[in-house]
Amino acid sequence: MTTEPWNVAVDTRMCVRTGLCAASAPEHFELDENGQGRARSATLPASEEVLEVAESCPIEAIGIRGADTGERVFPPPGS
Fold it and tell me: What is the pTM of this model?
């Protein structure tokens, strides 16, 4: 896994408000006033925890890109 920081965003058009992201990694994700998930910061440190939360989102509403390169980390390129 890269050590490059990640830009993490929750697509609010896709988010179905399960709260799984905020419950799984409250130090990285929170719920807004409408109950939608969002990253606590637009840039997060690359970590297995953040990747696992994105992978566990039932509709893949969480996108991750390399902060320096813009390379897509999740969902994987080509998916």
Answer: 0.90
